[in-house]
Amino acid sequence: MYVCMHVCVYMKMAASLPSTKDPLQQREKLYLLAVGYFRNGDYSRSRDLVDRCLTVCVCPSVLFMFVCVLFRIWLL
């Protein structure tokens, strides 16, 4: 049930991305989705979202997430 709730939240957030016009809100949604996929072990999807997030706006937390994702992919 816990995982199901997270999947529903991810789906709602992903569905709301196209309607988000503010770059900071878009970056926040992309970042949170990337963190969610990272925690679920889907590192390639997380990396795609982090890459998209970096094209919107660069910030320290996104750069740290990018390094974490690359490190996890490298370890696999």
TrEMBL record:
Q: Which residues form a coiled coil?
A: none
Organism from which the protein derives: Vigna angularis var. angularis
- The reply on keyword Transmembrane helix is yes
Q: Which SUPFAM superfamilies match?
A: TPR-like (SSF48452)
Which PANTHER family does the record associate with it? MITOCHONDRIAL FISSION 1 PROTEIN (PTHR13247:SF17), TETRATRICOPEPTIDE REPEAT PROTEIN 11 TPR REPEAT PROTEIN 11 (PTHR13247)
List this protein's GO terms for biological process: autophagy of mitochondrion; mitochondrial fission; peroxisome fission
Q: Does the keyword Transferase apply?
A: no
- Keywords (A to Z) from UniProt: Membrane, Transmembrane, Transmembrane helix
Q: Which residues cross the membrane?
A: 53-75
A GO cellular-component term linked to this record: peroxisomal membrane
Q: What's the protein called, per UniProt?
A: Uncharacterized protein
